[in-house]
Design brief:
By secondary structure, the protein is an alpha+beta fold. Helix content is 47%, strand content 10%. It is globular and about 70 Å long. This is Cytochrome P450 71A1.
């Protein structure tokens, strides 16, 4: 959640301090039932100024004082924050249906047409999008069909690092190129550039798109200050980006339709079709789905954009954090390198067949996700009815935030929670990896109806990239610099490593 626009409104907070701060306690709609505890807030802005630039950290500190379920008032928006595994389980499993909707997020509505499977409110349109995504785009068969694309992009990534070997490599640039390459091929196929002149411009366009998608508008929480969004240029920038992305996806869909013959692209089998092909199949095969909701071009565009944004950001962010943690923990890096190099056995590249034997690498990724959940506050839920959370009353249409970052670092749930200890996941080696809702101490992808269905797509991309980098190169910080990488965070659609990951790559051969 990017709250930087609120800095421009400090004068409002200062004026508000002239009034007496008050306890945002028990609004009348509680009807006498016990609402969650609430910190002191300010008139008009409520608890917005308390969020700061890194809300997940400040909310963790507040939860330590007020408990794992808190009621905040973000401007005019009542918001319940869940900060424990038990609270997360109740939101995403025990009372999943009551918490299954999403609040109105203005940026998502403007950039994703209000029709996507991530931000859309609970209802028939969302169920349709979710069904198409799970059954047609993100099934095991579909994920496996992009195996060669992932392996080719991983090989291209290794070649790019090798060209800069023994010099300082900007690993951020390398990893964003890899993740964009994988999702571009899965989404758009191997066709034309669609006016973007190759991968670098595509990466730049989607970086701005993702930044805007993660931006919170002032008018969303304090409607009478909506003019600030216009004054800061946010509305104009969003309108420009919306038009640009809409035109891009329109070109992609039109190109795919021109190249299709008999319901699929000419000359390509099942294992070569991309997401747009699959969505056009659904569009043509099902004139209406579910409760008579048309799966039209708007639904296709929304699906394409949310898939691109979610897959790129999650994979890229997690890979940067994983390499950063390993640089700061050389013993763990050597251990995972030894495992990868033994599994590959002197071959010239890492293939996806090798991944099933890399149990320690999987633990490294899990530990990275525990410490650095890509979306530390997940996507917000909204209650569909009056319900309860750990015995507290939560009225209908209340926004609910699950602080996955705080849950992953909860000392009541984890031994030495602030330390990077991949071996803590050793007991999970024989279980299905990353199953949503298996352990509510570990919810980087959410769970339940609104859990991320793209886990099966993202994880092989992360594992293959990390294994390839650690197989082919030994890594270290540049000489003359600090002996340890600073792990400060930068907030956006996801929380990223603030520092650029400049590392020295030394080629390794068997």
């Amino acid at each position: 959640m990017d709250v930087s626009p609120f800095v421009a409104l400090l004068f409002v907070a200062l004026l508000s301090l002239l009034f007496t701060t008050r306890k945002r306690g028990c609004p009348s709609r509680g009807n006498g039932r016990r609402l969650p505890p609430s910190p002191l807030g300010l008139p008009l802005l409520g608890h917005l100024p308390l969020l700061g630039s890194l809300p997940h950290r400040n909310l963790q500190a507040m939860a330590a004082k007020h408990g794992p379920v808190m009621l905040l008032h973000l401007g005019r928006v009542p918001t319940v924050v869940a900060s424990s595994a038990a609270a997360a389980q109740e939101v995403m499993k025990t009372r999943d249906l009551a918490f299954a909707s999403r609040p109105r997020v203005r940026m998502a509505e403007r950039l994703l047409y209000g029709r996507d499977m991530a931000f859309a409110p609970y209802g028939e349109r969302w169920r349709q999008s979710r069904r198409v995504g799970v059954l047609h785009l993100l099934s095991h068969r579909s994920v496996q069909s992009f195996r060669h694309a992932r392996e080719q992009e991983a090989a291209a990534m290794v070649d790019r690092v090798r060209r800069g070997a023994d010099d300082v490599v900007n690993l951020n640039a390398v990893l964003i190129s890899y993740t964009n390459g994988v999702i571009s091929r899965a989404t758009f196929g191997n066709g034309g550039s669609y006016g973007l002149d190759g991968g670098e411009k595509l990466a730049k366009v989607f970086a701005e798109f993702e930044e805007l998608l993660g931006t919170v508008t002032m008018g969303e929480f304090v409607p009478w200050l909506a003019w600030v969004d216009t004054l800061m240029g946010l509305d104009a920038r969003t309108a420009r980006m919306s038009d640009e992305m809409d035109a891009l996806v329109e070109r992609v869909i039109a190109d795919h339709r021109r190249r299709r013959r008999g319901g699929r692209r000419e000359g390509e089998g099942d294992d070569r079709r991309d997401f747009v092909d699959v969505l056009l199949d659904v569009n043509e095969a099902e004139e209406h789905t579910g409760g008579g909701v048309l799966f039209d071009d708007v639904a296709i565009k929304a699906m394409v954009l949310v898939m691109f944004a979610a897959a790129t950001d999650t994979t890229y962010t997690s890979l940067v954090w994983a390499m950063a943690e390993l640089i700061n923990h050389p013993h763990e890096m050597r251990r995972v390198q030894d495992e990868v190099r033994a599994a590959v056995g002197g071959g010239d590249h890492v293939a996806e067949d090798h991944l099933e034997n890399l149990s320690y690498l999987k633990r490294v990724i899990k530990e990275t996700l525990r410490l650095h959940a890509p979306l530390p506050l997940l996507l917000p839920h909204e209650t569909t009815e009056d319900t309860e959370l750990l015995g507290y009353h939560v009225p209908a249409r209340t926004r609910v935030i699950v602080n996955a970052w705080a849950i992953g670092r909860d000392p009541a749930a984890w031994e030495r929670p602030e330390e990077f200890m991949p071996e803590r996941f050793a007991a999970d080696d024989m279980k299905a990896d990353y199953v949503l809702g298996q352990d509510f101490r570990f919810v980087p992808f959410g769970a339940g109806r609104r859990g991320c269905p793209g886990v099966g797509f993202a994880v092989p991309s992360m594992e293959l990239a990390l294994a390839s980098l650690l197989y082919h190169f030994d890594w270290e910080l540049p000489a003359g610099g600090p002996s340890k990488l600073e792990m400060d965070e930068l907030n956006g659609l996801s929380v990223r490593l603030k520092a650029t990951l400049n590392l020295v790559a030394k080629p390794w051969s068997p």
